[in-house]
Amino acid sequence: MTIAADRTQTPPAATVPRRHFAFEAGRLKQPALALILPALLLTWWHFATSGQVYSLIPPPAQVGLAFYDLAVGGIRNDFFSGTLATHVVASVTRVYSGFFLAVIVALPLALMIGRIPAVRQMFDPLLQILRPIPVTAWLPLAMIIFGIGPTSAIFLVFLGAFYPILINTVFGVRSVEPRLFEAASMLGCSPSAQFARVVLPAALPAIFTGLRLGLGFSWMVIVIGEMTGVPTGLGAIIMEARQLSRTEVVICGMIAIGVAGFISDRIILLIGRKLLSWSPNHV
Amino acid sequence: MSDAPTILSLRNVGKTFEVQGRRIEALHDASLDVKRGEFVCLLGASGCGKSTLLRIVAGFETATTGEALMWNRPIEGPDPSRGMVFQDYGLFPWLTVRDNIGFGPASRRRPAREIQETTDHYIDLVGLGRFADVYPHQLSGGMKQRVAIARVLANEAEMVLMDEPFGALDAMTRERLQDELLGLWERTKLTVLFVTHSIEEAVVLSNRVIVMSAGPGRIDSDLTVDLPRPRDVSGTDFNDLRRSLSSKLHSHHGKVAA
Ligand SMILES: Nc1ncnc2c1ncn2[C@@H]1O[C@H](COP(=O)(O)OP(=O)(O)OP(=O)(O)O)[C@@H](O)[C@H]1O
Ligand SMILES: [Mg+2]
């Protein structure tokens, strides 16, 4: 901790040219700043739990060991050992299946809702009524319709990702600056061609925001989706471990979801940055 | 100039907007003939219908009364032959300078080779060679407006409509662009319809100044400016003209206030 703190100490500004200095310090500072809170949390967790006789929450060291066992095996050699990859693959598959399904349905629908008044009038009331229903409330119905198995999980992920994508895309499509339509039409771009040449590119930043939020929701929903009695998946081991009072495995599952969600967010962010390098206010 | 054919004629054009049951007469009985190759400035106080008139010529608005004709045919909607340069540029932020300039030709499905040649030519013409592959948000206001002018020229516009195109620029950039625009205009057979608030800008640029006034918006006077070019802004003729325009503008303004 003290070493990390020392690293963030900035050298006197006068010794280095300004711009260069700001850049260098910014590069070091960002990861260092990002690590402060996790480190504090870990410390607090450690001192609050280790050495206590009746702690219901296992100390970080025990979780670390459990994670190693879950990932590689060789420590407890039980039901959970060495199964992490299987569960991660199962969850990733379901998350992306549900997510892509949502993209395939929500994107074209949103483009039409945004541009065609009749479609908007037809879909808007129904969608607005369905929207406040939380994904959890769909669980029983999903199990009846799709049975116990991965399909229910994929359906719930689909629902979770659907609305962020839909709403952001509709917003993006509807908030294209009117000036750009005028510019396009005086340059000879026909109204039918304007959809592809103006509306889509102009809405792209909003669409990407929707995709990013949607993917985030997918990872939140997957645990609920995998409570429906599927044998694999990160949600499934969390439920399993809870029933066996293996709290350290529960925490491992949580961490794995966090990391997987983080990585998939980074990937979509990277794609977005590439496609949206033209946009001044897109991260 | 007087023997050039008439490219644009407005005959008793009026425009009334209806906003929440209220009717606003933005333009009343405006008549105007513009010959090919003329540089016409529309000058007038805020709200006198300059933009409305220009947007009717562009085809973005339809006249409620009278008719607007180009080459004796009614104007029905926007057309590449009438290119517009907006005060807020209206560039496509997702396209590079090159692709913004090539947007028109690409929309009209010109062959790729031709688009390439056209864009190269106009990028050079407005001096943006080093910025060809840059996005609009990386450009200064002056450069953005050069792109906006180039993309209209690249689209073979016969008439360029400009609505306070240099209004958002600093004085230096503004003067530079005025000179460049005059250079372009002299080299081409362009007809320019240019809206401005600035008397000086109108006198520097135009062959002809149309003075407009508000309440309802209408054309008040039509002056020919035949000062030799390049114009000397400190010359007596220039200043006489500026003064007379100024008094015209204020007398019309006074009438409205009274
Ligand atoms: N789309 C519209 N809807 C309703 N009223 C409008 C519309 N466009 C213009 N007007 C009204 O018409 C009148 C003339 O507007 P216009 O924009 O043509 O003036 P202008 O001479 O260009 O003014 P400025 O110099 O401020 O740009 C104004 O009273 C304005 O409020
Ligand atoms: Mg205006």
Automatic annotation (TrEMBL), chain A:
Compartments reported by the entry: Cell membrane
Source domain of life: Bacteria
Gene Ontology BP annotations: alkanesulfonate transmembrane transport
Pfam family, one: BPD_transp_1
Membrane topology: Multi-pass membrane protein
Residue span(s) of domain ABC transmembrane type-1: 88-272
Chief location of this protein within or outside the cell: membrane
Transmembrane parts of this sequence: 95-117, 129-148, 154-173, 217-237, 249-271
Record flagged with keyword Phosphoprotein: no
Gene Ontology CC annotations of this record: plasma membrane
PROSITE patterns (alphabetical): ABC_TM1
Role according to the record: Probably part of an ABC transporter complex. Probably responsible for the translocation of the substrate across the membrane.
Protein name (Swiss-Prot/TrEMBL): ABC transporter permease
Automatic annotation (TrEMBL), chain B:
Keyword check for Cell wall biogenesis/degradation: no
Pfam families: ABC_tran
PROSITE patterns in the cross-refs: ABC_TRANSPORTER_1 (PS00211), ABC_TRANSPORTER_2 (PS50893)
Span of domain ABC transporter: 8-239
One MF term in the entry's GO annotations: ATP binding
Keywords linked to the UniProt accession: ATP-binding, Nucleotide-binding, Transport
Position of the signal peptide: none
Record CDD domains: ABC_NrtD_SsuB_transporters
SUPFAM superfamilies given in the database record: P-loop containing nucleoside triphosphate hydrolases
InterPro entries the UniProt entry points to: AAA+_ATPase (IPR003593), ABC_transporter-like_ATP-bd (IPR003439), ABC_transporter-like_CS (IPR017871), ABC_transporter_ATP-bind (IPR050166), P-loop_NTPase (IPR027417)
Family classification: Belongs to the ABC transporter superfamily.
PANTHER family, per database record: ALIPHATIC SULFONATES IMPORT ATP-BINDING PROTEIN SSUB (PTHR42788:SF13), TAURINE IMPORT ATP-BINDING PROTEIN-RELATED (PTHR42788)
Name the UniProt record assigns to this protein: ABC transporter ATP-binding protein
